[in-house]
Design goal:
Elements lengths: L8 H35 L6 E2 L8 E13 L4 E5 L3 E6 L3 E9 L5 E10 L7 E6 L5 E3 L4 E10 L14 E10 L8 E3 L5 E3 L1
Parallel strand pairs: 1-7, 2-10
Antiparallel strand pairs: 2-4, 3-5, 5-9, 6-8, 6-10, 7-9, 11-12
C-alpha cells in the first residue's frame, strides 16, 4: 500500500508564484503597445512626432525640406499628399493637405499611423493639428482634404546628430478601424485581400 505525500505549503507558494508571474506577463503583453506608444510620443523615439497646441515662439534662419509620403493598408482608399514637399525655416508653422478618396461602395473608417525620418528628428517635429489624431470615416466615393499643421522646432539646431540634416520625411499609413460588424481585411496567399 503506497501513501501519497500531502501537498506542502511550499508547493502551494510555488504554484501561486507561477500563476502570478503568468498573469503578470499576460497583463504586460496587453499594456506593451499603449506604453510603447506613450513613450514614443513623449520622447520622439522611433521618429514619433510631438503633439503641441501652438507654434514655436521664434524661428531660426535655417531651411529644412519636409517631404510627405502617404500609404494605405487594407482600405479601399487612395491617399496622397497634395504637394510632395515644402521648404520652411526651423520654427516656421506650415499647413499641408493630404487627399483621401474612398473607392468602395460602402462607408469605411480608417486611422493613420505616422512617423518621421530620420528617427532623431521625431523629437523636433511638432504637430499642432492633424487628421491622424482621430479616426476618419469616408462615405462611398467621398474625396476629402485632410490637414496637418506642424513646425520643426528651432531647437533642432542644437542636435549634433542633425547638423547635416536638411530633409525630413513625414510618412502616414492609413489602416482600417475594425469595429463591431465591420469586416477586417486579411491578406490571402495571392496578394489579394478577403473579408473575414
Amino acid at each position: 500500500m503506497s501513501i501519497e505525500p500531502r501537498p506542502t505549503r511550499r508547493n502551494g507558494l510555488i504554484v501561486a508564484s507561477l500563476v502570478a508571474t503568468c498573469l503578470g506577463m499576460v497583463g504586460l503583453t496587453f499594456a506593451a503597445a499603449p506604453l510603447y506608444s506613450l513613450f514614443c510620443r513623449a520622447t520622439g523615439y522611433a521618429g514619433t512626432p510631438q503633439r503641441v497646441t501652438a507654434g514655436a515662439d521664434y524661428t531660426v534662419d535655417r531651411d529644412v525640406v519636409v517631404r510627405f509620403d502617404g500609404n494605405v493598408q487594407g482600405l479601399p482608399w487612395s491617399f496622397r499628399p497634395e504637394k510632395p514637399q515644402v521648404t520652411l525655416k526651423l520654427g516656421e508653422t506650415a499647413e499641408v493637405n493630404f487627399i483621401a478618396e474612398n473607392h468602395s461602395a460602402t462607408d469605411t473608417e480608417g486611422t493613420a499611423t505616422f512617423n518621421v525620418q530620420p528617427d532623431v528628428a521625431g523629437a523636433y517635429f511638432n504637430k499642432i493639428q492633424c487628421f491622424c489624431f482621430t479616426k476618419q470615416r469616408l462615405r462611398p466615393g467621398e474625396k476629402v482634404d485632410m490637414t496637418v499643421q506642424f513646425f520643426v522646432s528651432p531647437e533642432m539646431v542644437k542636435e549634433r546628430e542633425l547638423r547635416g540634416t536638411h530633409t525630413i520625411t513625414l510618412s502616414y499609413t492609413f489602416f482600417p478601424v475594425a469595429g463591431e460588424g465591420q469586416p477586417v481585411a486579411q491578406a490571402t496567399g495571392d496578394g489579394a485581400e478577403k473579408s473575414l
